[in-house]
Amino acid sequence: MKVLIPGALRSYTDSAQAEADGATLAEVVTALDLQYPGIAFRMVDEQGRIRRHIRFFVDGQPVHDLGRPADPQGELVIVQALSGG
């Protein structure tokens, strides 16, 4: 699966794009973490939920469940939401 990496996480990948395989999005995130140690913690909390400031889009559709099947030919876009006051 093609994965587009937001600027805030590129310190892990040194690239705007990565490839990762898995049957589900959770497995894709795990595969990314094997390639780029520590990146998963920035996206997924200790309970296995997508962190509130991270958004996942698969083939242009928002995804809230890491159990969603992953298409090897698909595209995962990771977006880091901005917050502040």
UniProtKB/TrEMBL annotation:
Matching entries from Gene3D superfamilies are given as: 3.10.20.30
Q: What is this protein called?
A: ThiamineS protein
Organism field: Methyloversatilis universalis (strain ATCC BAA-1314 / DSM 25237 / JCM 13912 / CCUG 52030 / FAM5)
Taxonomic path: Bacteria, Pseudomonadati, Pseudomonadota, Betaproteobacteria, Nitrosomonadales
Question: Sorted alphabetically, which SUPFAM superfamilies does this protein's record hold?
Answer: MoaD/ThiS
Q: Which domain of life is it from?
A: Bacteria
Task: State the Pfam families in the record.
Answer: ThiS (PF02597)
| PANTHER family (alphabetical) | SULFUR CARRIER PROTEIN CYSO, SULFUR CARRIER PROTEIN SLR0821-RELATED
